[in-house]
Each structure stands twice: as structure tokens, then as C-alpha cells.
């Protein structure tokens, strides 16, 4: 197991390097807006733009810019600690800005994960056990509706209908005061609507996914053997069926958590939540390359680490898995 984890960590480092290269090419080498022009403001003089380019290090060649960026991230290449560079727009360190917004994104992700698991898993189990019933048809119909609705559309509809300030039926607290809430309870109250919107599509996906897996699992020979031994249906479903059917859900959950920890861009943008996703969205609009690279690397790091954690958990969930 230790050798396997070491190999995966080395592979993760290589993947992060490749992702950094791709991000740099997309936002720096390919045609895009000039960060120096965006920093200079309206109708800047060529002299001012050139001065800003020198200040930001944009006057250097593209390979030199990339090497300097990698050297800042990896201290053993000559940097003074891990540094994701400086924002072109605010001239502030990128890493502290990301770390400052990380708790907000973690809080948003945690609440949404708890909510969609609490809804999706029971609904999927019920639909699998009651296959073909009106409850199954209703649950899968609603799930398909939520899967089809984009997050930004569902968020705007939720604000229009349920926000406490502009909603037609104001039954949920708004989130505009999230940054002003001093207590954990106040911030949780401000995130009720974003949690519901973010969890809606995921709960529907997990319900349909678990339903399909559980239906197939309940047709296996060992399930019929368990029933023949006289075990109760509840024990057959929970102890034997769900345990086998939920293994792919663990993979899906790990990847989804990793993606959201890297920034739920649409949800944070629609609800104006000051998380990593909102930070990345603003950076893309302003062609702020260091911020874009920093947020992309952070998201990739979470995805790689969650993937590794899921692989390790497989050995505990399924005794047949060995590394």
C-alpha cells in the first residue's frame, strides 16, 4: 500500500505540472486580452502599457515567464517558499487570497454534499426497491428535471422565487449578507439557498446512479442466496445490496468533492459567494494569469488527492481490492 501511495503521489506531481503547462499555454500563449492593457485602464498611452508590462514581467519571453512561475511554486528550484505569484490587477499574493477564500468554498461544498447524500441515497434505494411503481416514476422524473436544469438557471430561478429580499415567495434567507455574518449559524443561514441549488443536480444524479446499480446488484446470485437463507429484506438490501452498489458512488463522490473544492464557479457567481470559484471567475474576466493558474492548480490538487483517497478507501469497502 505504501509503495502504491508513493507512486500515485509522484504521478500527481507530474499531472499538476502538465496542468500548469496547459493553463499557461491557454491563457498566455494563445491570443487573449493583454493584462497590461487591462491594468492600465481606459485609453492608456503606449508608454504606460510598456511600463506596466515591465512591472508585471510580461516583457520577458513566454518560456522564461513559465520557468519563473514554476520556480516560485517549487521552493527547491530557487524560490522563497511556495508562491503562486502576484495578481496582475491587485498586485497581491495569489496564495494568501486563495487560502482566505478556501474556508468559504469548503463550507459551501460540505453543506451541499451532506444535503445531496441525504436526499439522493434514500431516493435511489427506494426507487430500486420499488421499481416500476408510481414513486419510482415520480422520483426519476423529478431527478431528470433537476439534472436538465443548469445550475446558473436554477440559481436565478431560486433567487427570483424564494429570496427574502426580491423573491415572489420569500421562504428562504438570501445570501447577500454572507460576508457580514459573524457567526457560523448566520453563515449557514445565508447558504441555505446555495446549498439547495448546488445539491439539486447532484442528488438527482446520485439517485439515478444508485438506482441503476442497486437494481443490477439485487439480481446477483449471492442476493438470492441471502434471501434463501431467510434473511430479512431490509438486511439483504442494506447489508448486501447497497454495500456492493455504493462502491461506484464513492468514486463519483470523491471526484465531485474535488471539483467543488477547486471552486463552484457557477454557484458562487450567481449567489455572489466570496469563494475560490468567484475569485477564478473574476480573474478570467480580467485576464489575471497568476490567479487563473493558482486556482486551476488548487482545483487539480484537490481532484488528484480525492482520487487517491477514493482508491485507498476501495481497499476497505471491498475486500477483493488489493494494491
Automatic annotation (TrEMBL):
InterPro entries per UniProt: BPD_transp_1_N (IPR045621), MetI-like (IPR000515), MetI-like_sf (IPR035906)
Annotated transmembrane regions: 9-30, 104-126, 138-163, 192-210, 244-266, 296-317
Intracellular or extracellular location(s): Cell membrane
SUPFAM superfamilies: MetI-like
Domain ABC transmembrane type-1: 102-314
Pfam families: BPD_transp_1, BPD_transp_1_N
Keyword tags: Cell membrane, Membrane, Transmembrane, Transmembrane helix, Transport
Lipid bilayer topology: Multi-pass membrane protein
Superkingdom of source: Bacteria
Family note: Belongs to the binding-protein-dependent transport system permease family.
Protein name: ABC transporter permease
Amino acid at each position: 500500500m505504501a509503495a502504491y501511495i508513493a507512486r500515485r503521489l509522484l504521478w500527481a506531481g507530474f499531472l499538476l505540472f502538465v496542468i500548469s503547462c496547459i493553463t499557461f499555454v491557454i491563457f498566455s500563449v494563445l491570443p487573449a486580452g493583454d493584462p497590461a492593457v487591462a491594468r492600465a485602464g481606459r485609453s492608456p498611452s503606449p508608454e504606460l502599457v510598456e511600463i506596466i508590462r515591465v512591472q508585471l514581467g510580461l516583457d520577458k519571453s513566454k518560456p522564461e515567464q513559465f520557468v519563473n512561475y514554476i520556480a516560485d511554486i517549487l521552493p527547491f528550484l530557487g524560490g522563497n517558499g511556495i508562491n503562486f505569484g502576484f495578481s496582475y490587477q491587485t498586485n497581491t499574493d495569489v496564495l494568501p487570497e486563495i487560502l482566505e477564500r478556501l474556508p468559504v468554498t469548503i463550507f459551501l461544498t460540505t453543506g451541499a454534499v451532506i444535503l445531496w447524500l441525504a436526499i439522493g441515497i434514500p431516493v435511489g434505494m427506494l426507487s430500486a426497491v420499488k421499481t416500476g411503481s408510481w414513486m419510482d416514476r415520480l422520483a426519476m422524473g423529478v431527478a431528470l428535471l433537476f439534472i436538465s436544469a443548469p445550475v446558473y438557471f436554477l440559481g436565478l430561478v431560486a433567487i427570483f422565487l424564494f429570496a427574502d429580499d426580491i423573491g415572489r415567495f420569500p421562504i428562504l434567507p438570501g445570501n447577500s449578507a454572507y460576508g457580514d455574518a459573524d457567526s457560523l449559524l448566520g453563515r449557514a443561514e445565508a447558504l441555505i439557498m446555495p446549498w439547495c441549488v448546488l445539491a439539486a443536480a447532484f442528488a438527482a444524479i446520485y439517485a439515478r446512479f444508485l438506482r441503476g446499480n442497486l437494481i443490477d446488484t439485487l439480481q446477483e446470485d449471492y442476493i438470492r442466496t441471502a434471501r434463501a437463507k431467510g434473511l430479512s429484506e431490509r438486511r439483504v438490501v442494506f447489508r448486501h445490496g447497497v454495500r456492493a452498489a455504493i462502491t461506484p458512488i464513492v468514486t463519483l463522490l470523491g471526484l465531485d468533492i474535488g471539483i467543488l473544492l477547486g471552486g463552484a464557479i457557477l454557484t458562487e457567481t450567481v449567489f455572489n459567494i466570496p469563494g475560490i470559484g468567484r475569485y477564478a471567475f473574476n480573474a478570467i474576466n480580467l485576464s489575471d494569469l497568476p490567479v487563473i493558474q493558482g486556482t486551476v492548480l488548487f482545483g487539480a490538487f484537490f481532484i488528484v488527492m480525492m482520487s487517491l483517497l477514493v482508491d485507498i478507501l476501495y481497499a476497505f469497502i471491498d475486500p477483493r481490492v488489493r494494491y
